[in-house]
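This part of the workshop introduces the protein records we will be handling. A record pairs a protein's sequence with a compact description of its fold. Comparing a sequence with its tokens is the quickest way to learn the format. The record below serves as our worked example for the rest of this section:
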Amino acid sequence: RYTGPKDFSGQGGSKVEIEDDLGWGFSFDYNIDRRFSLGFGFTWRGANYVATIVDADDPTNTQVIPSRFDTSTFGARGQWNILKTTLTPYVNGSWSWLLVDSNIYAGTQTGCWWYPWYGYVCGPISTTYGASSWSASLGAGVRWEPSRNSGFFLKGGYEYGWTGVDLFESAHIVSIGAGLLM
């Protein structure tokens, strides 16, 4: 899953420049028939970025933060293979939950959590700025099965995604996949 670079501008000259990156994912789909499948999937991507923060009271005071952010999704997906042939165009869609972690330190809190070997553990927890929201995508591509009996397929396509997070309003995603039919 490849996503290209993207720049965002803010007030007073603040900006974020996100580099392109190659992510990965996996899915488990149930083929209702040769043409339609439903399932769930997980994706992850980490991308480098540079954030330039401009002080609202003193525009000459800027802070440049190079970092790396992580995004991941988990959700439902569906695909319709348009033809019943070994080479077929397809359309797909997904509805997922999106998690974004900026990896920028946001403070320390005290909290407790369950640790399987020790029971409840309490202590300081470093937090980072992030967001979570719904995300959705629609896409199209081509799927190829070298042989109907092999159970193996390759596919490639384009997806347009959007979210409920202001920073990531949309994404252009190129995906390449391989899988086994069982």
About this structure: The first strand starts at residue 2 and ends at 3. The mean pLDDT is 89. The CA atoms of residues 95 and 113 lie 29 Å apart.
